[in-house]
Specification:
- The chain has a single domain, classed as Gcn5-related N-acetyltransferase (GNAT) (Aminopeptidase, 3-Layer(aba) Sandwich), CATH 3.40.630.
- It is 34% helix and 22% strand.
- A hairpin with a 2-residue loop joins strand 2 and strand 3.
- It is globular, with a radius of gyration of 17 Å.
């Protein structure tokens, strides 16, 4: 029986270089050169500890999904490079990657996550909404209109990231493995935890995104 496992690696790992090239090929097929003027060139160190991480989900030694995070600001991790094998989509792999990244970021001291997706990726939008990410755009707007000025085609999301939120998320999406007693205990002590003020997180992350 196949067994999936996460490994920690780097974007220049020979195992995943073809995967990343394929990911950018998918972007090109959807968007042409729309994002070419604003192509991101992150140093490899951005996805390395202590500020970030790059993970790959392997099945029988083959990459089937991946994702990464990097520092966005002192309290915020930005999720990047979320990908799943095109032949294995709609099987919960992307959700597994996102939740693993959230756990890693939380354990590394981040208290919220931020991410963007493109205006022609409705499946990504639905994924993030299903995982309680908060859209920083009008979800009822025509998506093509979000590619026109003053917009830049990037759909932004944020999510508070605390141990309470993580436990509730687990209970919601994986009730068979969630320990509801732990959820209750964490909720009871929430007042003693440094929980994010939603209004502050909305304001600070959104303002920085448009700087």
């Amino acid at each position: 029986m196949s067994q999936d496992k996460f490994i920690h690696t780097r974007p220049d790992d020979a195992l995943i270089v073809p995967v990343i090239e394929g990911l950018f090929g998918e972007y090109s097929a959807r968007y042409g050169d729309y994002f070419a003027k604003h192509k991101e060139e992150d140093p490899l160190s951005a996805y390395a500890p202590p500020d970030g991480d790059f993970i790959v989900l392997l099945r029988d030694g083959r990459p089937i999904a991946m994702g990464a995070y990097k520092r966005y600001d002192e309290t915020t991790a930005e999720l990047k490079r979320i990908w799943t094998d095109s032949t294995l989509r709609r099987q919960g792999l992307a959700q597994k990657v996102v939740q693993e990244l959230e756990t890693l970021a939380l354990n590394n001291g981040y208290t919220r996550v931020y991410l963007t997706t493109g205006f022609r990726q409705p499946e990504a939008v639905q994924l993030y909404l299903s995982l309680s990410y908060e859209p920083q755009f009008d979800i009822n707007a025509d998506r093509e209109s979000l590619a026109l000025p003053p917009h830049d085609g990037r759909l932004r999301f944020i999510k508070p990231l605390t141990r309470v939120a993580a436990a509730v998320e687990l209970a919601t999406h994986q009730p068979d493995v969630a320990d509801l007693a732990v959820v209750t205990e964490l909720t009871d002590v929430a007042d003693n935890e440094d929980v994010i003020d939603h209004k502050v997180s909305h304001k600070s992350v959104t303002e920085k995104a448009y700087e």
